[in-house]
Specification:
Blueprint: H1 3-25, E1 30-35, H2 50-56, E2 64-66, E3 72-74, E4 77-84, E5 87-92, H3 106-116, E6 130-137, E7 140-145, H4 152-156, H5 164-169, H6 185-188, E8 196-202, E9 206-211, E10 225-230, H7 234-243, E11 248-249, H8 257-262, E12 266-281, H9 301-309, H10 313-320, E13 326-327, H11 351-360, E14 368-374, H12 381-394, E15 398-404, H13 406-414, E16 420-425, H14 434-441, H15 459-468, H16 474-490, E17 494-507
Parallel strand pairs: 1-10, 14-15, 14-16
Antiparallel strand pairs: 2-3, 4-5, 5-7, 6-7, 8-9, 9-10, 11-17, 12-16, 12-17, 13-17
Length: 529
């Protein structure tokens, strides 16, 4: 019998006995989590999407992590140092085991870094400066970056470590890609070091997590079981919360907040998150679906400005967002390093001016294009997409609004099969403007431009991004990022809308639950009454 299989069997028996004692010594506490959507996969490298990674962080861990107040602290690495301008040395935590009983060592770190930076990895953009890694001993690794780089620790917060033996035993050494429909063993199976273990999973129905009694950290929670249930219908999710079928939702519908707040059994936590919502445009040679077939009108700045000016953002905020979003002309939130007040002003709503610009560009009667939005993605995405589509129609444009679930719309986006998409970016895990610049704004090249689905990169902006990526002087780096962001703003490469509101709601039986502006539930820091 292979060592990893033997260890898994032994660990399962040991875990069963240990957990039985764990439960009898303290009252079982089950948290029923009603989420607005399903996670993309159990493979943490399958899609660079914040929500999926935040859920999987209960199972998998990185070398470092963010606290509830978004400060970096040790996790699987207990300390680190820079040994040269391009080399970081990490001392790994001893005595840590994976859920199957395998010990955590430097080999697992190297195998995980190789997997996540593979050419086919959808998460390779989360480590844009990575060059190589080497093992010093079983509990020491060195990571080399391709130049002086100030954000490696930020990047590593979302690079979760997998068990090398488990990957090799299950032919899972290569990453999967949920956006392209590429699956593997890690799609439906998990083996991390984190505070919870996946006990069972029925995709689109229920995933059950149980507390890991051998977690290396001292648990700050008393939760013994999490029942994660995707409930895409907002009305059904609210009814389940009010009736007690679920205890918590991280997406409380904005239209129902007054009703929920009025219930003595419900607590509501509300703020604006780091995520900025924009429209991204197809800037390839031709539109994907249009009555203009010989060229792409969106490549004309006047057309992009017309789309921008045709949006009554106050009307969108009032009607679609229930007055809770924060209108913005920037593509990053004020809390993100790289933001400046100069990025904030929006173009004013001017429907007549939009019509004039379209006529000047040669489209007095508008043109048709496909608008790809998701029914289970951003907060009130369906509503704000419908509102904006209506506003564009009023100036003579002909948007064909394609609405569907993420599972249906994401593959089209990855393939570039769209003309306009609704898009949200929280700049996680970096919590820095370099995140959106290198992953979204930059032209596709190596680990850059992973989410540049519409060919909107520019050589002058690319050069600024690349310089900022190796600049260690904070003031100079932020100035470079601001310059790049101002070019993007002035050329209307994207059409900004708002900073997304976030609202969590929970029943009174939930005790503590820290809410951070990254919109990530940290249930290992939460309690049940």
């Amino acid at each position: 019998m292979k060592r990893s299989v033997l260890l898994a069997a032994t660990a399962a028996v040991a875990f069963s006995g240990f957990f039985g004692v764990f439960q009898t010594q303290s009252e079982a506490k089950t948290l029923k989590w009603g989420a607005a959507r399903e996670i993309a996969s159990l493979d943490p490298y399958s899609f660079g999407e914040t929500f999926t990674l935040s859920v999987l962080n209960h199972v998998y861990e990185g070398l470092v992590r963010y606290t509830a107040d978004l400060k970096i602290e040790p996790a699987l690495a207990e300390s680190w140092e820079t040994v040269s301008p391009t080399t970081w040395r990490f001392k790994l935590r001893k005595g840590v085991t994976f859920h199957n009983g395998n010990p955590f060592t430097a080999d697992d770190v190297l195998a995980s870094l190789t997997r996540v930076t593979h050419d086919t990895s959808p998460l390779k953009g989360n480590l844009p400066a990575y060059k190589s890694a080497r093992k010093i001993d079983d509990h020491t690794v060195e990571i080399e970056v391709n130049g002086p780089y100030p954000l490696l620790l930020n990047d590593l917060t979302n690079i979760y470590i997998l068990d090398k033996e488990w990957m090799e035993a299950n032919n899972a050494s290569l990453p999967t890609d949920s956006g392209k429909g590429i699956k593997g063993y890690a799609t439906d199976n998990a083996n991390g070091t984190g505070p919870f273990i996946i006990e069972s999973r029925r995709a689109d129905a229920k995933t059950i997590f149980v507390a890991n009694p051998k977690w290396w950290d001292k648990p700050a929670h008393n939760i013994t079981k999490i029942e994660f249930m995707p409930i895409t219908s907002a009305a059904t999710r609210v009814a389940a919360l009010l009736s007690g079928e679920i205890d918590f939702t991280n997406v409380a519908p904005l239209q129902d907040l007054p009703r929920l707040s009025a219930s003595p059994e419900i607590k509501v936590l509300q703020t604006n998150e780091l995520r900025t919502v924009i429209f991204a445009l197809n800037l390839k040679d031709k539109l994907f679906e249009s009555d203009v077939t010989d060229k792409n009108p969106l490549r004309d700045k006047r057309v992009r400005e017309a789309l921008y000016r045709a949006i009554d953002i106050d009307g969108v905020q009032r009607r679609a967002m229930r007055g809770l979003s924060r209108n913005t002309g920037a593509i990053i939130a004020p809390a993100i390093p790289g933001y400046t007040a100069a990025q904030e002003p929006r173009l004013p709503f001017d429907a007549e001016g939009a019509k004039k610009l379209l006529a000047e560009a040669g489209y007095p009667n508008g043109f048709s294009f496909q608008m790809n939005c998701q029914s289970d993605g951003l907060v009130n995405e369906e509503e704000f997409c419908q509102a904006v589509a209506s506003m564009w129609s009023r100036v003579g444009l002909k948007p064909n609004l394609s609405l569907g679930p993420r599972s249906q719309q994401t593959p089209k986006r990855v393939k570039g099969e769209f003309d306009v998409i609704s898009f949200g970016w929280a700049n996680e895990p970096m919590i820095d403007a370099y995140s959106i610049l290198v992953q979204v704004v930059r032209s596709k090249s190596g680990s850059g431009g992973v989410f540049n689905w519409g060919n909107w990169g520019r050589p002058d902006v690319d050069a600024l991004i690349d310089k900022a990526g190796v600049e260690l002087d904070t003031a100079k780096r932020i100035a470079m990022m601001n310059e790049a962001l101002m070019i993007v703003k002035n050329e209307h490469i994207f059409i900004p809308l708002h900073n997304q509101p976030m609202a969590w709601a929970m029943r009174a039986n939930v005790g503590t639950m820290p809410q951070a502006s990254d919109n990530k539930p940290r249930l290992w820091l939460s309690t049940m009454k």
